[in-house]
């Protein structure tokens, strides 16, 4: 809890202290273009990215990197029932005795006249 709270507050603070002007130029460009198109603000994005790289050492991830699946190496054992599947139900028991047709027909079919 406290680590996440400290981290979430430290990132905007470090951007605000080191790269405030390029960040402001970048978000105002995005905000003031009619449909918030990122392609119209590549110049401001490049200035912001270079400032963040030079002063903070952060590299912008390549397009699509954040949507890739990452496998995490762990010491935990695999779960026994990974898909939380239920056991198969018991089959219906065999019917006992003689089955006769219903004297009044089926409930699923009726005459419409």
From TrEMBL:
InterPro entries: CHCH, NDUFA8
Family, similarity comment: Belongs to the complex I NDUFA8 subunit family.
Coarse class of the protein's main subcellular location: mitochondrion
Annotated segments matching region Disordered: 74-105
Locations listed in the record: Mitochondrion intermembrane space
Task of the protein: Accessory subunit of the mitochondrial membrane respiratory chain NADH dehydrogenase (Complex I), that is believed not to be involved in catalysis. Complex I functions in the transfer of electrons from NADH to the respiratory chain. The immediate electron acceptor for the enzyme is believed to be ubiquinone.
Domain CHCH stretches: 19-52
Any one GO BP annotation for this protein: mitochondrial electron transport, NADH to ubiquinone
UniProt keyword list: Disulfide bond, Electron transport, Mitochondrion, Repeat, Respiratory chain, Transport
GO cellular-component term (any): mitochondrial intermembrane space
Protein known as: NADH dehydrogenase [ubiquinone] 1 alpha subcomplex subunit 8
PANTHER family: NADH DEHYDROGENASE [UBIQUINONE] 1 ALPHA SUBCOMPLEX SUBUNIT 8, NADH-UBIQUINONE OXIDOREDUCTASE
Pfam family, one: CHCH
């Amino acid at each position: 809890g406290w680590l996440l709270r400290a981290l979430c507050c430290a990132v905007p603070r470090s951007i605000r202290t080191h790269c405030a002007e390029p960040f402001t130029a970048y978000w105002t460009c995005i905000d003031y273009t009619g449909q918030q198109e990122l392609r119209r603000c590549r110049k401001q994005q490049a200035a912001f990215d270079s400032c963040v790289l030079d002063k903070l050492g952060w590299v912008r991830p390549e397009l699509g990197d954040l949507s890739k699946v990452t496998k995490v190496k762990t010491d935990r054992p695999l779960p026994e029932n990974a898909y939380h599947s239920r056991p198969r139900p018991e089959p219906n028991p065999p019917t006992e005795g003689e089955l006769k047709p219903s004297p009044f027909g089926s409930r699923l079919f009726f005459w419409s006249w």
